[in-house]
Amino acid sequence: MSGDTSGVTDTGNTGDTTGTGDTGGPETRPSQRGSWRAVGAVAGWQTAASLCYYTLFAATGFVREAFSISESLVGLFLTAGLLGYTVALFPSGAAVDGFGEKPVMLGGLLALAVALVVVSFTPATGSYALLLGAVALLGAAYSTAMPASNRGIVAAAPAGSKNLAMGLKQVGVTAGSGASSLIVTGIAAFAAWQVGFWLIAVVAVGYALVFAVSYRGTDGTGRLEPPELAGLGSNRTYVALVAAGLFVGASIYSMLGYTILYVEDVVGASASMAGIVLAATQVTGSVGRIGAGSLADRLGGASGAATVALVQLTGATVLFALLAGSGGSLVLTLGVFVALGLTIHGSTGVFYSCLSSVVDDDDIGAATAGGQTAINAGGLVAPPLFGALVEFSGYGAGWAMVTVLTVAAAVLLFVVTRRL
Questions:
Q1: 18-26 long-range CB contacts below 8 Å, 24 or more apart?
Q2: Any stretches that span the bilayer, and where are they (predicted)?
Q3: What pLDDT was estimated at residue 34?
Q4: How far is CA 414 from CA 323, 328, 347, 375, in A?
Q5: In whole angstroms, how far apart are CA 66 and each of 194, 222, 271?
Q6: Which tens digits make up the pLDDT trace of 256-265?
């Protein structure tokens, strides 16, 4: 196996076994460290997975209309997806550490495609409860994403380019979610919005087949074990990062969950224009992740990543405050959301890079699950609260809440920079 020099499985360095569970024997799977092709394959998988999951955010307006529900129930719809995602994170992280990332990624992507089709048929039943259950299954399938893809990136990243590689992988999140918003809202202009869901499911299955033959992955321990949370809990820097993730997730999920509705309700734009605003946020989020990763590599290590993330969160605080105090102009709204893409939405790559740098390689699956659980926990609570504030006080109150949450995240990131 070590003689294979074609495709993304070529590593150029078969002797490095750090964090992969490889014993170095001739029959074990080689490390993929130093392979930009492997980085690209993982980033492509992340794009396909996010394309599936973020249909939920693109479809908020259509779901509200199909089920005749309030803004707060739209928030509960998003929360159901996050709940399924969150509950399954630690089992997914344990599976990644035990069996390696490739089988988990393949199973996760196929499950996402199936769940997406199930969600698309729930309006025909008229059951909001069934919708929530289907969305929870979609979220559970997406739980494989961060633990598996982060492990793959750590193994594949060329020396000195870990932050950039992680940023490129995280571009898959914004690229997938941005494409999802364009596909779902674009198709809805001339056909049923569910057609967009079906098209995305086909794309996911197609990429799963390509990934199965083009990506080798790294070995796990061979044992399915619960994560050792006690060891991670004693790492004060890691704990502070996880706490920051709680508030980052609350802010990002509130922003993404209500972008479409805000543009429709306050700006008065069409659903397709609202989809363009959301997609523009995702595009600049991609740019922000690449730029932040490159800058963090120049600054060096976990400290560089934390510093860049802190600057991005500080900028986002100002932007959310601007939304809280103004509204109605399409140009201003587009400009603010584009800038939010560069700042808070572009910060997750360096966040994960910093997180993976402060733990041992063998704990990356569990550590990522912990960080993502915190991010999701914020997303579970904040969107329904945002929706409730909108119903009772308007969107200004909702954005004011997000401003406060982002300030809290920035304070915790400052604590992290002082400890590194």
A1: 18/361, 19/151, 19/154, 19/155, 19/218, 19/360, 19/361, 19/362, 19/364, 20/100, 20/155, 20/218, 20/219, 20/361, 21/100, 21/218, 21/219, 21/220, 21/221, 21/222, 21/362, 22/218, 22/219, 26/2
A2: 38-60, 72-92, 104-122, 128-150, 171-191, 197-217, 238-261, 267-287, 299-324, 330-352, 392-416
A3: 64
A4: 24, 34, 14, 18
A5: 11, 46, 14
A6: 889 989 999 9
Burial of 69 (0-12, 13-18, 19+ CB in 10 A): middle
pLDDT tens digits for range 390-407: 999 999 999 999 999 999
Q: Are 350 and 167 in contact (CB under 8 A)?
A: yes
> Which phi-psi region, left, alpha or beta, contains residue 224 (left: φ > 0; alpha: ψ -120 to 50)?
beta
Cα torsion 402, 403, 406, 408 to 10°: value is: -110
Residue 96, CB half-sphere, CA atoms under 13 Å: how many? Answer: 32
Residue with tokens 């193994």: 155
- Put simply, whether the predicted model's pTM sits higher than 0.85 gets the answer no
Amino acid, single-letter form, for residue 248? V
Domains of the chain with CATH codes: 29-419 (1.20.1250.20)
pLDDT(248) > 90: yes
* pLDDT value at residue 24: 38
Between CA 248 and CA 267 the distance in angstroms is: 26
Give the pLDDT confidence of 153-164 residue by residue, as tens digits: 888 888 788 888
∠ at Cα 334 (410, 385), nearest 5°?
Answer: 50
Average pLDDT value over all residues in the chain: 86
